[in-house]
What does this fold into?
Amino acid sequence: MLTIHLDSRLPLPLYEQIYLHIRTAIRSGLLNEQERLPSTRALAAHLSVSRNTVDMAYSQLLSEGYIEARPKSGFYVCPILELEPGWEEQAPGAATASPAALLPPADPHGHFQNHFAIKAPCQEASSALRYDFSPFASNTAGFPYRIWQRLSARVLSEHGNELFLLGDRQGEPELRMAVAKYLYEARGVSCDPSHIIIGAGADYLLQLLIQLLGFPKLIAMENPCYIQAARILRGFGCQLLPLPLDENGLSYEALRYSPARIVYLTPSHQYPLGLVMPAGRRQELLRWAAATGAYLIEDDHGSEFRYRGRPIPALKEMDSSDSVIHIGTFSRAIAPAIRAGYMVLPDALFQNYCQGFSHYASTVSRIDQMILTHFLAEGYLERHLNKSRTLYKARHDALLQALRIFGRQITVTGDHAGLHLAVQFLDQPSEHTIIETAKQADIRLYGLSAHYLEPAPAYPPTILFGFGNLEETDIREGIRRLWEVLL
It folds into this structure.
């Protein structure tokens, strides 16, 4: 039985205190791999708390991959692997795919062929359709106009002409401090504000990062992936190495046998499939990066909106070897037009930045930076996110409920977080057929295939259903119409 000292006077909820205690015990080895945990009923009675409190703690541990539930048996500690010295030289076992099978073909000189065609995302037609399930859309009607307007007037009044002069090239110090505080409180990341770079969205920050890394020739990416990032990397002459996904996210087996030393990934909510990378896989990647001197580029996409348990800590939170480059934006949290993002650099890359790139000026205006600073520091972002989570949760649930009309004809993934679901249609011939047929019912849909690096594997037709900018009534009606035309 676990004895956990719970203190109701602490600001942390009791379930979170239980979760943190068990997570720490697993990480430190006090709870061993495959060790059985107490049942929720028994632990609740032992700690004199409600069973629901323990259920919530276990649910969070399950979602992060620290424990697993075995039917009619209980909860067990998942393996958090310690990699043995010299693992990188070991040959794969009989049940492991050979390294050659996991990599793209090479030319006679041993160079990987850079023939992976990147399909452009589906472009919206000039004529709008009524039911647009765009996975990129968010609720712009919920933008806090009055608060933003009030902060804008205050910033201009308090700072005056000063804001029309050039500011700190990394971004305003006040904003970098506010971002560091936000990352610590919301994502569990402890970082030095001096290592934060402010830029106009993830696209610009990624372009700057490629230069800091010395224009690398080979970058590994999830397949499917966030295709906009792939297009930017290819635009800078990078060779992309698509690596497959398994149920835990980016395949560790494929990565460990690859020559890549830079990896771009979305561990908190894999885009576009919505997978959440568990703690065990995260540790595997971090230990690989530490052993090989590699960098992991963590795009923290979709981390703000989660519908089960507390937010998953960032990969950077587990990074003890300074191998993770953390990138995030406020585009989803506030609005797409708020072109403000941040990048947390490891120390070695920050030194590169200081020596060769500190002449780059921040691409976000000082006025917008100061407005955003107040928006973060005065708690407006937290309140806005809480309101948005409630709205998106209702739309998320409405979409899941509406999709039940298809019964066993579909499977759904990515329903734990984010602003879209990935839905496989098991009895339809192709994505193209589904998308074109849906237009007959005034519905715009978006296929998964646009997010694959070639060659794409064979898979059932898959559609990404976004719900960020659709009312619940439109979600239900749109799905009903889709079901009718696909019959």
